[in-house]
């Protein structure tokens, strides 16, 4: 965990930064873990341990962390229509030029075959910039080994939509009573995803594009002209105009002959010569009172998984795309550890403790520490050169609030 919390970037850094016997790292780790070890393990031993541990206990740990936040009502300020917004999207952490395991995905470019692993992430996103990992479904070809005599569809490679079915089952099992709102890209605007959301009583706000549901898109555009009164225009600042137009009660029949009913909205943003266009479908009936919130805190909020989520994990010192091992279970374990560490850092960054310290110094959080990466460097320096005192572990009543501005 310290590999990602201190943003060391490479496994070998664990040996060079945390195993120096002249520092306080061993004593601090013993105090934090309530152990009495005489040495710290080399990174090879840690990999060996994770290889045998497997990813399941780490996923369970993350679930317990999220449940604690939900039950403590820490995240209630971020609900949309009473539900937590879960952005769902896939990313490709690692790729190889040659086969390294039996279940990796393949992609052919000319005469070259690339082997890679992907993961479908569900992150609880907020308008304050949080992207907390809730569940991860790894996309691989494990199912192909049992599909030799199955249909041609079963023999296809794994993909995001197949992974979403497994991800949804996991979410429903771990959070059976928690109201959720699924925010996804246009790939998810399809029958299987709509059916799952309906069965699980989940809200959804999904990106709507002409090429994904062409017949529904044509009906949407035709009915927009027939109901010109369904418009909501705001001017949040001078020179900026945002126009919402919507249609309720659209109908769609998927390839399984299941009928789905939903609503669609488009958003046009004009600022000088800059024009932007967005559209979504949702199960929530649209009105002038809720259209802005549904689109801004539901539809456009999906980008938080890209910006505050994947981009930070790839370029912010976590090194999501680094190959931490060639075994697929080891890759999954490191990916989950990274998600947990990023979750912890977000709670620290958005929490009230550091802001209180910065406020006492008369500065903002970034003005006091310089950057979030500097905080990780301060943590490393603390572990190396500062012995955590016994009174730091005494039980105290402490409430940490999240910044919801």
Account of the protein in words:
It is built from 14 helices and ten strands. It folds into two domains: 1-53 and 351-405, no CATH class; 54-350, Transposase Inhibitor Protein From Tn5, Chain A, domain 1 (Alpha-Beta Complex). The protein has 405 residues and is an alpha+beta fold. It is 39% helix and 23% strand. It has helices at 2-5, 12-18, 25-33, 43-53, 56-71, 160-174, 191-199, 214-226, 291-299, 304-315, 328-350, 352-360, 365-369, 372-385; strands spanning 84-96, 105-109, 112-125, 131-139, 180-184, 203-207, 231-237, 240-253, 259-271, 274-282. Strands 1, 2, 3, 4, 5, 6, 7, 8, 9 and 10 form a ten-stranded mixed β-sheet that branches. It is globular, with a radius of gyration of 24 Å.
CATH level 4 superfamily of the largest domain: Transposase Inhibitor Protein From Tn5, Chain A, domain 1
The class by helix and strand makeup works out as alpha+beta
- Which regions contain 5 or more consecutive residues with pLDDT less than 50? none
Rounded to an integer, what's the Rg over CA atoms?
24 Å
Average pLDDT score:
91
Q: What is the fold-level CATH name, i.e. the topology of the largest domain?
A: Transposase Inhibitor Protein From Tn5, Chain A, domain 1
CATH architecture of the largest domain: Alpha-Beta Complex
Number of strands: 10
Count of the separate structural domains: 2
Count of DSSP-assigned helices: 14
CA-based shape: globular
- Name of the CATH first level of the largest domain: Alpha Beta
Helix content: 25-40%
Strand content: 15-25%
Element-by-element helix/strand order = HHHHHEEEEHEHEHEEEEHHHHHH
The main sheet comes to: 10 strands, mixed
Q: How widely separated are the two ends?
A: 29 Å
């Amino acid at each position: 965990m310290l590999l990602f919390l201190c943003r060391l970037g490479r496994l070998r850094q664990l040996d060079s930064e945390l195993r120096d016997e002249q520092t306080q790292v061993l004593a601090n780790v013993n105090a934090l873990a309530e152990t009495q070890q005489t040495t710290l393990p080399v990174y090879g031993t840690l990999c060996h341990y994770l290889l045998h541990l497997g990813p399941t206990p780490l996923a369970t740990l993350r679930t317990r962390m999220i449940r604690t936040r939900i039950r403590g009502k820490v995240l209630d300020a971020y609900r949309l229509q009473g539900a937590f917004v879960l952005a769902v999207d896939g990313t490709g952490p690692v790729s190889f030029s040659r086969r390294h395991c039996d279940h990796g995905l393949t992609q052919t470019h000319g005469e070259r075959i690339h082997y890679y692993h992907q993961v479908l992430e569900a992150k609880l996103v907020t308008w304050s910039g949080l992207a907390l990992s809730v569940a991860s479904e790894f996309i691989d070809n494990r199912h192909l080994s049992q599909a030799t005599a199955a249909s041609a569809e079963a023999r296809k490679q794994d993909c995001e939509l197949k992974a979403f079915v497994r991800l949804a089952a996991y979410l429903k099992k771990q959070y059976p009573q928690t109201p959720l709102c699924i925010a996804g890209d246009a790939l998810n605007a399809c029958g299987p995803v709509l059916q799952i959301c309906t069965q699980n009583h989940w809200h959804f706000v999904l990106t709507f594009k002409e090429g994904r549901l062409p017949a529904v898109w044509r009906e949407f555009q035709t009915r927009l002209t027939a109901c010109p009164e369904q418009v909501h225009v705001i001017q949040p600042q001078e020179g900026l105009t945002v126009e919402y137009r919507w249609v309720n009660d659209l109908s769609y029949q998927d390839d399984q002959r299941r009928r789905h009913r939903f609503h669609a909205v488009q958003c046009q943003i004009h600022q000088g010569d800059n024009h932007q266009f967005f559209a979504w479908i949702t199960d929530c009936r649209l009105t002038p009172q809720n259209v802005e919130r549904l689109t801004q805190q539901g539809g456009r909020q999906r980008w938080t998984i890209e910006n505050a989520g994947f981009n930070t994990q790839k370029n912010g010192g976590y090194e999501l795309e680094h190959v931490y091992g060639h075994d697929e279970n080891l890759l999954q374990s490191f990916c989950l550890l990274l998600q947990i560490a990023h979750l912890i850092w977000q709670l620290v960054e958005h929490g009230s403790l550091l802001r209180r310290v910065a406020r006492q110094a008369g500065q903002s959080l970034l003005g006091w520490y310089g950057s979030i990466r500097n905080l990780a460097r301060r943590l490393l320096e603390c572990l190396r050169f500062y012995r955590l005192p016994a009174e730091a572990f005494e039980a105290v009543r402490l409430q940490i609030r999240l910044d919801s501005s």
